[in-house]
Amino acid sequence: MKFHGGCTAPGNRLSHHIxxxxxxxxxxxxxxxxxxxQSDNTTTVAPIVPPAESGDPFIVYQRSGGLTGMDDRLCIYxxxxxxxxxxxxxxxxxxxxxxxxxxxxxxxxxAGFFSLPAEYPGSPQAxxxxxxxxxxxxxxxxxxxxxxxxLPDPLVPLVxxxxxxxxxxxxxxxxxxx
Length: 178
Known about the structure:
Elements: H1 13-34, E1 59-65, E2 70-76, E3 81-85, E4 91-95, H2 98-111, E5 119-120, E6 129-137, E7 140-147, H3 156-172, E8 174-176
Parallel strand pairs: 5-7
Antiparallel strand pairs: 1-2, 1-6, 2-3, 3-4, 4-8, 6-7
Helix pairs in contact: 2-3
């Protein structure tokens, strides 16, 4: 049996768990002192805009499936608001800072997002994750859907960046009642 991180023996599962838990604890501590999706450069902070007043989101990232049955929807608004909806009905809100917005926009550009096909079908697997990414920029709107087993190379860094946003908002975001 093979585990993430190159662990091959079941006995290594505990040390892998301890390593992951430690990294998450350090990340949570850094966020607690640094703010939600905040950069080190405080001059790049965008104004905090309530997501409901920001119009339509310009990024909508959804991921579902996998062994844990995740179902997340992340909406990022150009005005700086961000919302994360989890499958358990919990909603998190958070400001997104301009440096992070620029980094996300650069990730879309690097992926050549508007030139990618709309669908990358995968084979049905119990542990597959299904991704749907909507992006609006410069008057263009495009949606790409893919399964984890068919994720094209240009989308891998973009999905990592969006997964990081989901993690950061779930840790540092303000939890709203469903």
